[in-house]
Amino acid sequence: MLSTVLIVKDLWVKYFTSSGVINAVSGVSFSLSRGEMLAVVGESGSGKSTIGYALLNMVPKPGRIVKGEILLDGVNILKLSEEELRKIRGSKISIVFQDPFTTLDPLRKIRDQFIEFLMEHGIDKNNALKIAREYIEAVGLTERVLDSYPHQLSGGQKQRVSIAMAISLNPSVVVADEPTTALDVVVQKQIMDLISDIKRRYSSSFILITHDLALALERADSVMVMYGGYVMEMASKNELAKNMVHPYTKALFESLPRIKQRTLPKYLTGYPPDLRNPPPGCIFHPRCPFASEKCRIMKPELVEISKGHFVACHFAR
Ligand code: SF4
Fold first, then answer.
1. pLDDT number for residue 264
2. What is the pLDDT of residues 212-265, one digit of tens each?
3. Closest to 73 (Cα-Cα) out of 49, 55, 53, 96
């Protein structure tokens, strides 16, 4: 039995904007085992990236975690001081952003940035240089990259550097927020191969945040499908691939392009909900082809329909 490294319980996140309160994440719960990759899948505005930020307790303002627990190796990170959080970010939990420029300072060489990052976590300069070399090689780059400025590297190389920094302190959990979206297709595959390889080699646990259900089904061990801040469906990858139940998950799957398909993929009609003023009942009902009167009035609970397979739909079986 693999140990559990992360438990999220009843997480609620809201953005308090001048035009109203956005309910970004509503009552989300899940757990992650050592060596597991959980994909959090959904359209823009589904709350998936907010979950990523919440896991590091760094939801950008005017957002705030209003309720819940995030237990990382048994410690509720929502109870930690800013100083304690600074220590665990990078060493216990780290994040790889969509755009590696978010992580890398364009004015400084990779070597200096990498060493400084490690020294901030209490590693002396000599060891920091050794670790930087080791992890730059672990992500398939040569030591020469350490002497480069970010603008001298390709998008794929920059993302490899971000990944090297994110894993260099052997954190319990790595959050990868759309790590390949800004890259071209060939490099996307290389980066996902690298992440899968790191997961295997170091038994790292990953939260993969993505809009791409196909990528989730290909790479992750388990998948959590989000819509309008709520979990719609959650299951192991194998279970979900053979038994998709929620109408939203099915719609996402049907809208994937297929190589042999001669017709255009089916697209989900309508728009994601306005989270300042979400619809009553099932949040998906305005776009759901199976919506009934009950769906317009009553919110479905997330229920376990078979072992480890959870669905939020009145008609799930
Ligand atoms: S509860 Fe109703 S509206 Fe919601 S997904 Fe199920 S059938 Fe569709």
1. 60
2. 999 999 999 999 999 999 999 999 999 999 999 999 999 999 887 766 666 666
3. 55
In a domain, 316, yes or no: no
Residue 267 has pLDDT above 90, yes or no: no
Task: Give the pLDDT of residue 259.
Answer: 62
Separation of 290 CA from ligand 1 center, angstroms? Answer: 6
Provide the phi-psi class of 61: left if phi over 0, else alpha when psi is between -120 and 50, else beta: beta
Retrieve residue 265's tokens: 């993929």
Residue range(s) defining the domain that contains residue 269: 4-92+171-311
Two structure tokens written together for 15: 């953005």
| Best mutation site among 310, 315, 317 for ligand 1 pocket (most ligand atoms within 8 Å of CB) | 315
Tell me the best of 226, 252, 285 to mutate to test the pocket of ligand 1, counting ligand atoms within 8 Å of each CB and taking the most.
Answer: 285
Nearest C-alpha neighbor of 111 from the set 125, 98, 121: 125
Please give the number of the atom of ligand 1 that sits closest to the Cα of 283.
4
**Residue minimizing CA distance to atom 5 of ligand 1:** 313
State the total domains in the chain: 2
Are residue 37 and residue 186 in the same domain, yes or no? yes
Q: How far is the CA of 30 from the centre of ligand 1 (A)?
A: 22
Within a domain: 61: yes
What is the 242 CA–ligand 1 centroid distance (Å)? Answer: 20
φ, ψ of residue 93 in degrees (nearest 5): -145, 135
- Check pLDDT > 90 for residue 136: yes
Q: Which of 149, 170, 191 is the last residue of a domain?
A: 170
Does the CB atom of residue 285 touch ligand 1 within 6 A?
A: yes
- Residues 44-73: pLDDT tens digits? 899 999 999 999 999 999 999 999 999 999
